[in-house]
């Protein structure tokens, strides 16, 4: 699985002929550059221009399957479970959907713009292993750096990828999160390529994806 970051909460995950995008940025976003690539599946965490731009990842002649809420889905080689949580992203009460995705032999948990510092019971009950955790760290309606790290530890996530910070979060949120995680020496990378054997023995390793 190849992972890249495209601002806000936008993560692209590709393997073989399949590309997923989480929280694609709309052209209506006032803070983040809109997504500009094709995807087979778009997973929408919140209904906000910073995260619901499924039209930006559609390509001529190829339909994008849009997942925008709780439920169970199976699209080709991908299985998805969406669980409802809450968020105060951009100052308003919002419904946020957490997605547990099994793809390319890996278990990926995407928390979206989650604002409550409590793991949904469905996730606790149903998810045995979290190979990759995408967690918001920016505060201002999503988890704070300290809350994000606490959840990463509770879930025993093998790989932790911070999202929703920088232009859409509190100043120095990334620096504070890396300190909380004991990962102050971690430098951003353009992409991360992960296979099941690569994460098998890792615990709490932070990967920062550059925009």
**SS class:** alpha/beta
CATH superfamily membership: Ribonuclease Z/Hydroxyacylglutathione hydrolase-like
Give me the Rg, rounded.
Answer: 15 Å
Assigned CATH architecture: 4-Layer Sandwich
CATH topology term: Metallo-beta-lactamase, Chain A
Number of helices: 4
Side by side, the strands of the main sheet go 6-7-8-9-10-11-13
Can you tell me the CATH class? Alpha Beta
Give the total of beta strands. Answer: 13
The share of residues in extended strands comes to 25-35%
Ends: how far apart?
A: 18 Å
How many discrete domains?
Answer: 1
Identify the overall geometry: globular
Summarize the structure in words.
The chain is of the alpha/beta class and 211 residues long. It has a single domain, classed as Metallo-beta-lactamase, Chain A, CATH 3.60.15.10. It is 14% helix and 30% strand. Helix 2 packs parallel to helix 3.
Describe this structure in a few short sentences.
With 211 residues, the protein is an alpha/beta fold. 14% of the residues lie in helices and 30% in strands.
Please tag this protein with its features.
211 residues, alpha/beta, Metallo-beta-lactamase, Chain A, six-stranded mixed β-sheet, 4 helices, globular
